[in-house]
Each structure stands twice: as structure tokens, then as C-alpha cells.
Amino acid sequence: MTLKIKILTAASALLLLATVACKKSYTIGGSTFVAQVNMTTYDYLKTNHLFDTLVMMIDKTGLKDELNQAGTFFAFTNYSIRRYVEAKGADLRIKRNDENMPYTFDSLNLAALKDSLRSYMFADRFTRDNITRNGLWRQSRNGEYRLMQLIPTSDYTNQNVFTTEPQYIYFTKIIALPGHPVPPDSTQLGSVVDEQRLESLCQTTGILTTTGVLHVLGNSHMFNFYDDNH
Amino acid sequence: MIIHHFKVINMQNAYINRKLVAVFLLVLLGSSSCKKILDLQPHNSTFTDAYFKTGQDANTAIAGAYALLRSVLLNNYSWHVYGDLPSGEYSVNGGLDAFNQPICNGQFIGLNVGPWEWNWQNYYQVLQQVNLIIARVPEIPASAFTNPDLKNQIIGEAYFLRAYVYFYMSRIWGDIPLKLAPDLDVSQAQTIARSPATTIWAQCLADCQTAESNLVFGYADLSQTAVRANRGSVLALRAHIQAWKHDYSACEKTADTLIRQGGYQLEDSAHYAQVFVGKSREGIFEINVNYGQNEGIATAGNGGGYLPTLARPFIANQGSLNWPINHDYVINLYSDTADIRYAKFFYQAYTSNQGQTIKYANIYYADGSSQGDPRLSNNLNIFRLPDIMLLRAEALNKLGRDGEALPLLNAVKERAGIADYTGAGGTDMGREILEERLREFFFEGQAYYDLIRTGLLLDYNENFSPDQYYNGGWVWPIDPSMFKDDFTLVQTKYWQGKL
């Protein structure tokens, strides 16, 4: 008797598995993955609360159209702006010798930060297909150059199992140090030393909006690479 | 039927045959083993009388002792785990390094903090080797050495290493078993109870005395600079032991002799990197880690090394950072942003959770084409000149001689490009000297001991439990698995019943 029940249970479990397993194979999160979103870059940023401070900055600086004209935009999250506000505040408190000086997002001079925002925008489209390991050294919309690199990583992988390593996109500002200038063009990249590179890892890459490509910088990025410029 | 019968006979035959072969083989073995093909003296053992006959033997043995010391200090990254993590310098990322993250909060026990941090057996391997040298090298005639001074040097180095290892252990575990003779026969190895730390320090100071009389300042062979002990290394150790005992008047005198007679000088801050590569003019004692000698620290494959404070761009292909600096600790400590050390020791320190420590970032790639298999080529600094200068300043301050302490403190500050100290004397100055140490020796395995010695740990690591600190829990518990080999061992008082 018990044996019969056991067999019956096993058989029904198998049957259940078979029917369930047949449904919707190869789907992630309810639909197949698509990189395209049917919105402009600006509208897409508005849909995600991680970017609401960024959207506010873009609104107040009137850069919405420039953002949608950009082929590539490296978006940064609320965390990056918060870090910037805190660091800037701490710096001013020391400089003005007033340890109680309030400094919040409202205190930012947004007009002066317009060009800083432009340094995250690029005219051309840069995706995983055309970014290289050595990197593209490209002029952003504010005239400064930024380095974009696609770099293999050994994080979370086992070299004996993975024949090809996964790759991260890095967004890098190169600063001048004594004896080491900022390279005028990509041929001089070889003489850059590690200490000059202020790298930021992208947490999400290759979102294709109707107006361009969107990469999202990691939450540990600080807006404008502020105060890492040593 | 007939066939069946035949089969049985055949099986029996096979059985007999096997027996015969076995007997035959045994006979063969018996006859051939009479031919004395075995060497009675093992070729590579240091434990028989065959060894320790020549100066070369002694030199190889001391090199082996240094190699063992290197391996215990690097093993499980213990030099930094014991010396740096509990001070609060780091905010280890628990998602990437769950084993070391609790240690930042002073949690020396728990789910992820393991017996490998509680176990001292590897240290006794170093001590066994050193005790063997101390027991046997004096019996080698001086004429067996290429240079008669070498015999004294090796004996002196062995005493130094013994004192260093015991002192190092006593700062980690407090009371430890004291063993001064080698075990020549495993079957007669003795079980030894833990001696009080004060007894250990007295022995360490006696060993330093012997080491000092056998060693000289400077190096005849420059390739041995700092990576082999000399009289300077001994004095640095002695000053540290005396400071740890709070015998500040003795510490001040030892440090003074070293500073005056040692021949060391501060490197210019333009060459800071050389201090951490090693063998600089201020290096007093270092552990050799050199890629050029094929002895870099490898992390890939079975290299076993660990470089958790570095990621891109300092190690290609390393996207994640296991040990980011503790942002608040660093920002508070290096409040003067003109500090050259802030720029040279850290990378993206202000980006609050991803600051890298780049003091030790001299990386070579064994697989050059794909920048794979990174190898670190930085010596491990154990003692260097500013350490002793600030230690002397600390001693003078405690003795109420602030006027003499000030130039030492300011010399270190000036090298780092920051303003001289202008504050008050006494406790204020004492704190400034401590903070100067914390700034200068960040990630050099010193901070925790400095904070314990000065009694200010809780001011700098707010996560460390006051109950644990005040009740002797700042020393590590010992591994219960060692009790089965040595039934005389008892757990440290604070940790009894907690493991």
C-alpha cells in the first residue's frame, strides 16, 4: 500500500514537473530580454527612481534636449550626487572655517555644473561592440576627453571553467600629475600611469533608447570625479 | 560434467600459482634488500648529525628560517589581519570577503572567523628551525665558515628571529608556551604550558642582548640590506618590546642609540615608493618579496596570495575591491589634504566606499600579453626609521620631555609635507604622535598594536566592543584543536566558554 502511494506521488510529481517545465522556457523576468526601450533617454531616466536627482539637475540646467541629442550618455545615480554634495560641503566647511555651515543639494550652483553634466555626454554611439580593451579616448560634449574601456574581469568566475572572461565597461577621467600630462590624443595613452586614471565601473551598460545609448555608472562613482583629483 | 570438473582443477592451479609467485617475490625481495641500497643518512634532513657541519649548512638553515617567517606572516594574510583590521582602517566588503569583515569590528570569534587565526602551530615551526640553529651552529668550528664573522652573524640572526617571533606572538595571543630548545625526536616532544607574557618579554629582551652582541650595524653584502637582521633590526625590536612593556625610559635610550648609530636616514618623499619596494635607506627590517627573484606574491591559480586592497587600474582584470578603506577613518586622520601620504598611499580615497590602498602596488604580470597572473613585488616593511623616531617621541612624551620629542615628530611631518606641530604638550602631543604613526604606517601591520599600547583603541574603532577591550579580549582566542596535542594548554580567560 505505502509503496503504491509512493509510486503514485512520484509519478504525479513528475507529471507536474513536466507540465510546468514546458511553460515559458528561456524567459527572464516574464519576457525575453531586449536591450531596446521605446523611450527617449530622458524619459527612460524618469522611469527609474535611482535617477530622480539626476533628472532634476537636467531639468534645472535645461539640458534635456542636449541629453536626447547625445549618442551616448553615462548616467550616474542619486548616490553619486549625494557623495558630491557631501564632499563639496565638507570642503567648503574647512575652507570657510565654519563647521556648522549647511550645505545641501539646494546649495549647488547648477548653472556652473552645466559643463560637468556635459562631460558625461558624447555625440557618437559607444556600445560594447565598438568599445575596446585599450579604450576609446573621446571628447565629451564639454570638450574634455574621457576614456571608455571594455575590460575582462576575473571577478565571480573561475578561470578553469570560463574560456572567455566576462567584461566590464569602465568610464575613466585622466588627470595630470607632475611629469605626467593628460594625453592630447589616443596615441599618448600608453604613457599614462595608473595613478592618473580615475576609473569608474559601470553597473549597467548598453540600454538602447530611441535617442542613444545609456550606460549607468556604479553607485560608488562620485559626480564629476570630485576630490579624487589628487 | 567433465568440463566442470576440469574448471575446478584449473582454478586450484591458479591459486597455487599465485601463492608460488608471492613466495618467489618475497625471496627476491629478501635477497636484494641485503645489498644495502638504502642510504642511512637522509640527503635533505636538517635533523641529523649529518647536517650543521659547514658554514654553508648554517647559512642555508638561517635562510630557511627567514622563509618560514615569511610564510607565517603572509599566510592567510595574517600580518594585515592581526595588525591592521581590528584598528578600524578598513571597511571590508562582507560580500566579497566574509571571513575578514567581522574582524574590522573586533569580532575575533563567530561564524566566519576561523581557527586559522587562533592557531599558532606554524609559528612553532619557525621557532623549531631557529632553536635548531641556536643549538647546533655554535658547535660548527669558525674555520668551516668562508668568513669567520658569518658564524656570529648567523647566531645573532637566529636569536633576533626567536625574540621577534615570540614578541609578535605575545601581542596576538598574550600568554604563549615558551620553548627554547629544538625537538630532535618527535616521540619525546614535550607539552608545555603557556607562560605569562611578562616571562616571554623577559626572554625576548635576553635574546635581543645576545643577538646584539653577535651583530653589527650596516651590511657587508648590500643585497642583504634590511631583509636580513643586523644590529639595527635588533635595537628596533628591543625598543618595541620596551615600549610594549611601557618601560619608556629604556625604550627611549634604545631608540636613541639606533637613530644615532644605525646609519639610517629618511628617504625623500619623492622616492616614497622605494620605501615600500624595499631596501631603502630607511628600511630596518623587511620580509623579502621580489618578483625579480621569482618570489613575488601570486594571486592567480594556486599562488595562494591575496591582494585585497587593490583593484583596477592597479591590477588589470580585478574589478572588485575586497578591502576598501574605512572612509571616515582616513578622512579624519588625513585632515591636512596637503599630506603627501594621502596622495601616495590612497587611490580614490574620497569616493566613500571604493578607496584603494596603493602603498604596496608594485605589480608585475607573469602573463604579460593578457595582463594575467599578477605578482606583487613589494617587501613587507616590519621596522623602518620613522617608526623608531616616532616611538622615541612617544617615549619622551610619556617621560615628560616634550621638548626633545618635538623635533622627531616634526621631522616625520616635514617629510610628508605637512605643517609642524604647534599644539600643547602632554596628552595632546601624545595623541598627535599616535596619529602621526597611524598616518605614516597605515596598512603596515602596526596600527592595532599602536592603539593597544597607547590604550586608545576605542577612540579610533568605534565598533570594537568596550566589554571585550577592557576585559582582556583584545588578544585573540586560541584554537581548541591544539588542546588535543597539548593538554596543558588553557583558553585565554576572556574567551573561556565563548567559542
Tell me the fraction of residues in β-strands of chain A, as a range.
15-25%
Sum up the overall morphology of chain A in one term. Answer: globular
Low-confidence stretches of chain A: none
What is the succession of H and E elements of chain A?
Answer: HHHHEHHEEEEEE
Assembly classification: heterodimer
Give the radius of gyration of chain B.
27 Å
Helix content of chain B: 40-55%
Protein name (chain A): FAS1 domain-containing protein
Keywords (chain A): Signal
Signal peptide (chain A): 1-23
Structural descriptors:
heterodimer; A: 230 residues; alpha+beta; FAS1 domain; 6 helices; 7 strands; B: 499 residues; mainly alpha; Serine Threonine Protein Phosphatase 5, Tetratricopeptide repeat; two-stranded antiparallel ribbon; 17 helices; disordered N terminus; FAS1 domain-containing protein (chain A)
Task: Give a brief outline of the structure.
The complex is a heterodimer of chains A (230) and B (499). Chain A has 230 residues and is α+β, with helices and mostly antiparallel strands.
